[in-house]
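Box 3.1 A note on notation
Throughout this textbook, protein chains are presented in two layers. The first layer is the amino acid sequence; the second is a token string describing backbone geometry. Keep the layers aligned when reading.
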Amino acid sequence: MTAAESSGTGPIDRLTHLLVLSRPRFWLYLAGPVVVGVVYAADSTSELLTPLSVALFAYFLVPANVFLYGVNDVFDADVDAENPKKDEGPEVRFTGDRWIVFAVILSGLLALPFALVVGSAGKFTLAAFLVLAVEYSAPPLRFKTTPALDSLSNGLYVLPGVLAFTAVAGDLPPTPAIVGGWLWTMAMHTFSAIPDIEPDRRAGIRTTATVLGRRRTYVYCGSLWALAAGAFALVHPLLGAVLAVYPLVQAGIGLSGVAVERAYWWFPAINTVVGMALTMGYLWRLMYGG
């Protein structure tokens, strides 16, 4: 067992292992949409920082990531034996410790109190997130092993933003925004699966990426990102312009010959910058008008 795999015995070792398991580089993939959802739902600055919006951000920053990736690692223990990212990358393998299973279950249960303070649309959104977070990796559905459904089910990443929007506005965001966000997450998920194509094939797992292969997966992701930009343009042309960076970046990666295993790790920074641009742009409008 390597140092990266060991969860240790002391509380600090266990906490460190749990945080690494939750993929800190990707924390904003769930928490970032909460910020965007709150900002775009708010009619005044007083609605930006409320106990509910802060609680949602805190939950989706860490506990939700522990839950999502913990379920993934528990049910992927055999598959991860063939995955080099678990040896050389910033991830860890599930070691079979019962306390990890308990922590993952507890992290999921921490979402339930939100159902008491959001409307029917919020309850449905929260339930959809929890179901997809589990069934993406766990039997009986295990979407991640079914081509097309593995990509489609990753719309779950937009649901924290939808939940935050409903918590502030009391209703769902515009349909094109939900569709655009869903398409974006599908592309992001499938692009991130490209480095796993060979390990997944050796493990006998079929995914959208393993079926399409690298070249066609590039085309698939670029097409989804372009459609996402188009959907957001229906909400506001500037939103579409900002989201257009993704098909352009993906095309640049493909044409430049940069290894996708390397480019994969650029996207947390790219996503943070894009999310910041979307958030700051609307904050300016909210505070100063125009």
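The two ends are 58 Å apart (CA to CA). The CA atoms of residues 189 and 268 lie 12 Å apart.
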